[in-house]
Design a protein that fits this description.
four-stranded antiparallel beta sheet, alpha+beta, 177 residues
């Protein structure tokens, strides 16, 4: 087998989109069926014109897109319960003795550490994304219909300030970007 074919075989077996773990405090990873990976955007370029030439210059502003994961709906109650405990009451359930105010610190602490781990066929972690200051920004419950037979779920979006990627090389060395 040539080196090129061997490398392609290894790459295709390693980089399968179904070998992952999403680790969030208090949420069993077995209940998560899909997750998007972090993705940075580098801001819109500004155009400058000099005579008949146009030049593009990056703005230097990096933003990270929200990630979304799908969970079995029974776990959604854990998230809603957490939010009600932290800073949200339905308008007909407001307790004047215990007025709540959602703030970023409490929202971040409510879910704890968030990591996405990508696995080899043997179950070893070769890529880890860690999200910093992540919090739940949206819970979207799946619609109901008579045509489907799948388990009900919900999509959960997380906002975060930035993410770090730790990659394990074939030699076992860890490199963080």
């Amino acid at each position: 087998m040539s080196d090129i074919n061997y490398i392609q075989t290894v790459r295709s077996s390693l980089q399968s989109n179904f070998r992952f773990l999403l680790r969030i405090d208090d949420i069993p990873f077995a209940m998560i069926s899909s997750v998007t990976r972090p993705s940075p955007s580098f801001g819109a370029s500004k155009e400058f014109q000099l005579l008949n030439w146009k030049f593009k210059n990056p703005t230097g502003i990096v933003t990270w897109s929200d990630i979304t994961f799908k969970i079995v709906e029974s776990i959604s109650g854990i998230l809603l319960k957490t939010y009600k405990r932290l800073g949200y009451d339905n308008p007909n359930q407001i307790n004047a003795a215990n007025l709540k105010d959602m703030n970023k610190k409490d929202l971040i602490n409510s879910i704890g550490t968030v990591k996405i781990e990508v696995l080899t066929p043997d179950g070893d972690v070769y890529e880890t994304w860690q999200l910093y200051n992540a919090y739940v920004s949206k819970i979207d419950f799946e619609g109901l219909n008579y045509t489907g037979a799948s388990i009900l779920g919900a999509s959960v979006s997380l906002s975060y300030d930035w993410a770090a990627l730790t990659y394990r090389t074939a030699a076992g060395r860890e490199v963080t970007y």
